[in-house]
Amino acid sequence: MNPNIPFNVNTVYLVTSSRPGEEGITRRLVESISDTSSNGGDFSFLHARINSGDGYFQLLEEIFYEIDKGLRPIIHFDMHGSQERGLEIGKTGEFIDWGSVIDSLRILNTKLNNELVVLMTACHGLHAILPISFEKVAPFLCLIAPEQEIKIGHIEDRVPEFYRELFSSGSLAHACQKLGSEFNYFHSAEFLFRTLTRYIKEKCKGAGGQKRREDLLTEIMETRLGEEPEKISEYRTKVKQHVAPNQELLDRYTSRFLMGKASGIKIDELLTEIEKSYL
After folding, report:
1. Given this model, what pLDDT does residue 203 score?
2. Which of 166, 208, 226, 278 is 20 to 30 A away from residue 103, measured at CA?
3. Contact 211, 166 (CB under 8 A)
4. Is 168 helix (H, G, I), strand (E, B) or coil?
5. Strands (E), 9-123
């Protein structure tokens, strides 16, 4: 299923926090993206260095207010990352944990109506998706990041091609191919639909659905409602209706997690995808 949600980006906002002695690496990346922007890249380029945890949050607050002035960024974090601890502030050695990264990006994505694109050339950057909750707005429309460690040379070689392709074709999927298999392309809408598909298969259909229905019926019969056993057939019908996936289930998550984007997707399309998966 391809939700085909549009996005609007006019600026590459590079955020760096190099360790002492790595300034040359940062300078080369800044120069390569700047050259791409100046030579037909068709995008604006901004660069900010952060030297403390407070500096990280202050920068995102500044970006928040720049959005009112027309800024539509792809935020590119070129920082060290830890699978367990989050993004590293190179100068101080402190970390911004993944949960705080997600919460801060969610504020920007809400402001951008779920059109925030994030590139992380940080080791283990894909771990930013782990704290995501469907009970809240998505922290970004798309995240492009490696799951494991990534070599500096790979970043320097591939990132300019990524931006050149992104702003010439307008396709994130095509641009991600320029980064190679080391990077993963995480799309919030596709993630939601895959998760809902798995939920429906495991909890609403087949043996899993049958067990859930029987468990709910047992709970009903153990309450005061169960004092009327002659109504068990009626209760069973209501439980079946309650467990069955419907448009309300899909709309509830697309309206909240995706801020109404992909609202045109119908539950029948999702169920068709599920039926195909059994073939």
Report:
1. 73
2. 166
3. no
4. helix
5. 11-16, 44-49, 73-78, 81-82, 86-88, 95-96, 117-120
- Residue 208 has which token pair? 């899993």
For 5-45, write each residue's pLDDT tens digit.
667 899 999 999 998 988 898 899 999 999 999 987 789 99
Residue 257 · residue 134 · CB < 8 Å: yes
State whether residue 124 is helix, strand or coil: coil
Residue pair 88/79 in contact (Cβ under 8 Å)? The answer is yes
pTM: 0.81
How distant is the alpha carbon of residue 119 from its chain centre? 11
How far is CA 93 from each of CA 43, 55, 104, 122, 147, rounded to the nearest angstrom?
A: 32, 13, 20, 15, 21
Structure tokens at 113: 């109506």
Question: Which residues are within 8 A (CB) of 82 and not within 5 positions of it... i.e. 6 or more apart?
Answer: 88, 95, 123, 124
The residue behind tokens 């993630």 is 191
- Phi, psi angle pair for 91, to nearest 5°: -70, -35
Q: SS3 helix, strand, coil % of the chain, rounded to 5? A: 55, 15, 35
DSSP string, 134-163: TTS--S-SEEEEESS---HHHHHHHHHHHH
- Helix pair angle (53-67, 98-111), 10° resolution: 10
Report the residue count for the chain: 279
How far is it between the farthest Cα atoms of the chain?
79
What is the percent of the chain where pLDDT is above 90? 34
CA distances from 56 to 2, 189, 262 (A): 34, 27, 31
